[in-house]
Every structure is written in structure tokens, then in C-alpha cells.
Amino acid sequence: MRLKGLVIAIILLGVLCTAGGFMASWQGGKKFTAETEQAFLGLTDQSQPFLPIVNPKQSMDELPEPVRLYLSKALSDSSKSISSIRIKQTGKIKTTEDSRWDNLTATQVISLNPPGLVWSGKVDYAPLTPLTIMTSLLGGKGATQSKLWGLISLFENKSYSMGKYLLLRWLAEAVWYPEVLLKGKGVKWEQAESNVHDASTAKITMEVDDLKVEGEFHFFRSSGAPIFFIGQSIDGYKWYCEYSGWKQIQGRQIPTKLVQGVYHGANRQERLMIFVDEIEY
What we know:
Layout: H1 2-46, H2 65-74, E1 84-93, E2 102-111, E3 116-126, E4 129-138, E5 141-148, E6 152-157, H3 160-172, H4 179-183, E7 187-192, E8 199-208, E9 211-220, E10 226-234, E11 237-249, E12 252-264, E13 267-280
């Protein structure tokens, strides 16, 4: 009888834990959704229409040759003027340097003018234990926060370095809104030597408020499409982004798969894999 009672107690405890997990997930998910929508609204409220491109192919004379080749194919005369975009994503993430890959779903809203972004992701961290991640670049300030069930804070960073990293990310992800590479405020291009086989390289520098970042785009010599972007060193790490799965969407040639990570010395660490499921201009 004692054994039977113990078994029943264990079953009841499992049921209570499962119910508690569902309740925490539901409450946290509701809270996180509200916070996400508020952050999206704050970003889009500050967005201004990006200057229309009358004839982008006539606006490239002063750009380095590989950039001209890329933008001549990435943009068309029919590209409409936009102020922000929304992207629904699926993918995988490593939450720490040594962790496994976890599945994620995310929505990202990006402001073109001024540069800004909000990335809101939900990670399948453990059974009945979702991890929510909110990353934002607003008004030249960067921030990221992760929470279990959207309730218990695990990590938060609002440092100046985070702002620089997120501006680098915005710049690298400009392949989704390439018009900013043609006429974006504070953007400067320079031809650079390439150390990558069958690739051309151009250096880009961008200033927004008190943030200044620089990096290099590497382009296929044959097609002109970007292969990858690598940013300057920030706190000993160089952030990078690789591109693939190119498609023509609403007058823009864009990649639908991005792999992002960091170099720490000679050590390369993949951290985030993104697939574009839907993009709204």
C-alpha cells in the first residue's frame, strides 16, 4: 500500500508540474507578446519614409565596383519606398558558446530611417520551458534580454558594445533592404583588398548618433551576390553573417537564409541560423 501511495504521489506531482509548466508558459507568452508589440510600435512610430529611389542604377557611379555590381542586380527601378519591414523567421540558435542548437521562431521589425530593429524570438529551450529573447536597437541604444517562460530574467545587456553589435547586425542585414546601402545616411564605401578566393571585397563604415561601426562585405566576382559580412572587433569578438538562398521579392534580390556568429581569435562559433518565412515591405 505504501508503494502504491508513493506511485500515486509521484503521478500527481508530475501532473502538477506539467500543469504549472503550461500555466507559466501561457502567462509568460501572453506577457511577452504584449511587450513585443509595444516594442514594435515604438520602433515603427519613430520610422520615417526612406527617400525613394528614382533610378537606382544612375546613383551608383561613386560606389566601389563590386558594390555597383551587387546593387545593380539587387535593386530594380520598381523598388517601392518603404520605412520599415517585418520578417517572420524560423531557425536555430545556440544560447551560449558550448550549448546545443535549439529551434526557434521569431519576428523581426526593422526601421530604415532612422536605423533600428526589434527581434523577438521564442526558443524551444527545454520541455514546457520556452526561452524568450528580445533584442532591440532604438535611438542608437542597443539592448537584449532573455527570460524563461517570458517571466524569469536570465540575461540582460544594455551596454555601448551591444549598441555597436546591433548596428553591425542592422548593416549586415541590409541585404534585405539594399536601398540603404545605396543612399543610407552615414554610409561610406571603400574598395578593399580581398583575401578570399574568387571574391571581391568592399569596406563599409556607418555612423548613427554616437555609434560608429565598420565591416567588410565579400562578394562573388561572378554573380555579384554577397557571400558574407564580417564586422570590426568588439570586445575581442568579430561578428559575421553568411548569406544564401537568394530570391527575387518585391523588386529586391534578397537572401532567405542567414548564418550568424563570431570569431574569437582563430575560433569560429556559429550562433544563429535564420530562415525567412515571410517578409512584408
